[in-house]
Amino acid sequence: LKLDGQCASGLKIMKDNRFLTDQEVLEYEREINDYVKKGDVESLRGVYKDLKGLYFDTSKANQK
Questions:
Q1: Number of domains in the chain
Q2: Is residue 18 part of a domain?
Q3: Domain span at residue 39?
Q4: Tell me: the pLDDT tens digits for 22-43?
Q5: CA gap 11, 36 in Å, rounded
Q6: pLDDT for position 39
Q7: Count of CB atoms within 10 A of residue 7's CB?
Q8: How far is residue 25's CA from residue 10's CA, in Å, rounded to a whole number?
Q9: Distance CA 38, CA 62 (A)
Q10: Among 9, 13, 46, 59, which one has the highest count of C-beta atoms within 10 angstroms of its own C-beta?
Q11: Which residues contact 11 (CB under 8 A, 6 or more apart)?
Q12: Residue with more model confidence, 35 or 57
């Protein structure tokens, strides 16, 4: 899962019937990168489980 730099190009993540703010997306990103650095697989699984239920709208990102 690679989120960095995509917020600006229109990646929207929906959670609990609302779109996450860019700030919230960055928080997720920071968290994931942190766990990857530490090799913390259990925490990563938790984040992915959390993210799995989310809706990603990349339609804007794909338009040139």
A1: 1
A2: yes
A3: 12-62
A4: 888 888 888 888 998 999 989 8
A5: 22
A6: 92
A7: 19
A8: 12
A9: 32
A10: 13
A11: 3, 25, 56, 57, 58, 60, 61
A12: 35
